[in-house]
Amino acid sequence: MRKTADVVIIGAGISGLAIGVHLAKKGVKDIVILEKTFPGNGATGRCGAGIRMQWGVELNCLLSKFSVEYFENVNEILKNDVDVEFWQGGYLIGAKDELEAEQFRKNVTLQNSLGIESSYLSPEEAKDMMPHLDVSHIKAATFCGRDGHLNPFKTVEAFVKAAMDLGIDIEKNTIVTGIEKTGGRVSGVKTDKGDIKAPIVVNAAGGWSKQMAELAGADLPVYSRRHQILVTEPVEPLQSAMFMGFGLNIYIQQVPHGPFIMGRGDADEPTDLRMTSSWKFLNDMAETVTTLMPRLARLKVVRQWAGLYNMTSDAQPIYDEAPEAKGFYHACGFSGHGFMLAPATGQLMSELILGETPSIDISSLGIDRFKGDMLLPLESSVV
Amino acid sequence: MSYDKFEQTGLAGPHEMSTCLPSEEQRKKGPYAVIECFEEIPCNPCVMSCTFDAILPFEDVNSLPLVDFDKCTGCAVCAGICPGLAIFIVDESKPGDFGTLRLPYEYWPLPEKGQTVMALSREGGDVEPVEVVAISNVKGARTPLVTLRLPKDKLQDIRGFRFLSEEEQAALKDDTEAEKTADIESLESPIVCRCEGVTLAEIRDLIAAGCHTVEEIKHLSRAGMGPCQGRTCRQIIMGELMRAGIGKTEDMPPGSFRPPGGTVTLGQLAEGGDSDA
Ligand SMILES: Cc1cc2nc3c(=O)[nH]c(=O)nc-3n(C[C@H](O)[C@H](O)[C@H](O)COP(=O)(O)OP(=O)(O)OC[C@H]3O[C@@H](n4cnc5c(N)ncnc54)[C@H](O)[C@@H]3O)c2cc1C
Ligand code: SF4
Ligand code: SF4
Prior knowledge:
Shape of chain A: globular
Strand content of chain A: 25-35%
Structural class of chain B: alpha+beta
Order of helices and strands of chain A: EHEEHHEHEHEEHEEEEEHEEEEHEEEH
Helix content of chain A: 25-40%
Order of helices and strands of chain B: HHHEHHEEEEEEHEEHHHEH
Largest sheet of chain B: 7 strands, antiparallel
CATH class of the largest domain in chain A: Alpha Beta
Radius of gyration of chain B: 28 Å
Number of helices of chain A: 9
Mean pLDDT of chain A: 95
Low-confidence stretches of chain B: none
Largest interface: A-B, 35 and 30 residues
Bound molecules: flavin-adenine dinucleotide, iron/sulfur cluster
CATH topology of the largest domain in chain A: FAD/NAD(P)-binding domain
Structural class of chain A: alpha/beta
Number of domains of chain B: 2
Largest sheet of chain A: 8 strands, mixed
Strand content of chain B: 15-25%
Mean pLDDT of chain B: 86
CATH architecture of the largest domain in chain A: 3-Layer(bba) Sandwich
CATH superfamily of the largest domain in chain A: FAD/NAD(P)-binding domain
Number of domains of chain A: 2
Low-confidence stretches of chain A: none
Number of strands of chain B: 10
Distance between the termini of chain B: 57 Å
Number of strands of chain A: 19
Shape of chain B: elongated
Strand order of the largest sheet of chain A: 5-6-4-14-15-16-13-17
Oligomer: heterodimer
């Protein structure tokens, strides 16, 4: 393995890969991505890979709009022809009660003001769109037809290809075990395969980012929580849009080759980096989905799995340089939407690292916000 | 009263067919005549034509023909004689999945041996393209007989054929060529994961490209993600990794097993109530 690099990125999830690709596109030469197992084996390869522009706070709307436009042109941008299976069947989001319906009205106004073509629907209109949905459980809905989902494995493959074409080293099976500092600056990393000197180190370790920060003596106000998900047998196309509910606590999509993929959140899930599966999830998930979509009761479950959400207290990411170590950057705390934000993450982090003016103002996503009372408005549109 | 296909359409239904077919045993012996003649009409050439006395003697000229299958040799004389084109000769005695159907065909031109035609059901609907394997004119008979090669399970359903249009012939040619190449490809590379249709060649390509764990190969090829959850492909992939010199199987991470171990429906799970985490 090499002894020096201009930039070391920890983690070959979608975030680390996107950051590497964008730095290289801007001309940065010696980039190495260190990955403890293999690309996409963290949250990235375990996620629903849904992407939506229907958010409740402005910044999330802008970041995800950037990403939708990016994924629409991903082959030109990454200069390869990997089919990432971007399915733009829309997101239909159901409001559980009047309170949520009221919030949805505001969300749509905000989204429309930012050029996002979402609309507010009555339960009957939602029923027309998704006949197998029992709309007696929703008070209203919103829909945006440009939202959708991707194949996370294929997306990783596309980014890995682009990274290799740009001359980036991806070191698999390489565990970062230490981060070196000289004065107040980062100066390299230690791994189980040897040390690498580098003036810039990026923490894109997802669920493990807090541990990476600790190696540099940096405090990172994030924690990880397990999220579970399941997939059914493949069936004939029934549902084109992703259905989601925050109060209802569900997201469910039918992927192009037929199976349904669904998940939900649970505040009782462990926060200790565990990625095991539980019966409770199967039961809760089945109950939630068969109540909302009784027709799906006959579907067989093929498998379930779990991944880590890396959480901040306002459910928004951290894009910043660590105050404790110059040259050490964090891109983490993505909650349940780091996959869809990845294009923005790549673009904005590369600008931040190279001292360029960011394409979207992300000054509010700094690490300082957790210190005083500068917390962002809490994003309520999450599962 | 329940729907009676024969009464309403004149087409033989299950009841009629049950009266004119031989037993399992008799079918295995050789070809036999299926006489689909269910209207009492004053007609008897079939009885007269059979040199084996295999069609039971009529009480009067209006009687329905019944075949004694122990005597019938499938010679097909009656089939060429019957003015009603009601007699078919079926042979399902050869091993394999295919048999033959000889049917009277009184139009011009006749098809050629080896030609592909569209097999038709009793109702006259397209069933599938099939091959003409023989054309014959039984001595003394009035109607030529055309022999079709058919899957055994369709021998009692197909009772006619039509010629293919030029477009249909062209499309068929493309299909068979594509099928041939697909056949050759799959011959060269056996399927490792049957659920997802992943071939050994794909697995070897991935290993050569640097995928050195079962899990990685699973992400990129989908091998092991199907309903069986890798019950057979997992071992084969580990074997391939070992052959490629990646390591000993016992040291290899086996790839993740994802519950549930057997299939269970969402409905069953929802009813299952709360079991512990
Ligand atoms: C069940 C589930 C469903 C989700 N659904 C969606 C969704 O629909 N849409 C969406 O946008 N997001 C979704 N998410 C969130 C999304 O998956 C994550 O936000 C995103 O994948 C984070 O990517 P990442 O690259 O930052 O982290 P990861 O993909 O976790 O990558 C971090 C990488 O760092 C590596 N690493 C860790 N420690 C070390 C070390 N010491 N040395 C070297 N490497 C190390 C890990 O192996 C890993 O590969 C979901 C998440 C889960 C769990
Ligand atoms: S097929 Fe031949 S043997 Fe059989 S009944 Fe007819 S004529 Fe007789
Ligand atoms: S010759 Fe034909 S029509 Fe006449 S009785 Fe025999 S089968 Fe019927």
